[in-house]
Amino acid sequence: MPDAVALLHVPALSDVAEYAYAAIVEPPAGLVFTAGACPLNAEGRTVAPGDHAAQARQVMANLETALAAAGATPTDVVKTTVYVASSQQKDLVTVWEVVRDFFGDHDPPSTLLGVAVLGYTDQLVEVEAVAAVRTEA
């Protein structure tokens, strides 16, 4: 069965971005919307205070777990939103490198934002995703 996700790289737009500019969900497919994955360990504590990269790795591991619970994998993701609690572009780049490496060759459209604060004490990173999975026809 072919994938439910088709990523579009748009030649008329800049090739500087390290992600596709659009994604198409092919029928029949169901959509999976995740809550923002946070850098929490199994005890519910924020990991690696002050370390953007370590928190991003925990976030992506937690995101993968949430996707799996919904029957999805990282290659089913059609869109991400990445939140970084920082006003420093270097911190956003650090987190983006972890996110990009997590997805490998699968480069879904993404929005990367610097924000003032996130919900948990010492939290620096949060990532939410939309995925598409094949449903029975």
Quick take:
With 137 residues, the protein is α+β, with helices and mostly antiparallel strands.
Name the descriptors.
globular; 24% helix; four-stranded mixed sheet; alpha+beta; two-stranded antiparallel sheet; 2 helices; 137 residues
Radius of gyration: 15 Å
Going across the biggest sheet, name each strand in turn: 3-6-4-5
Multimerization state: single chain
Low confidence ranges:
none
Quickly count the helices: 2
By secondary-structure content and strand pairing, the structural class works out as alpha+beta
Overall pLDDT metric: 94
- Bulk shape: globular
Most strands sheet: 4 strands, mixed
Q: What share of residues are in beta strands?
A: 25-35%
Cα end-to-end separation: 11 Å
Helix content: 10-25%
Reading the helices and strands in chain order gives EEEHEHEE
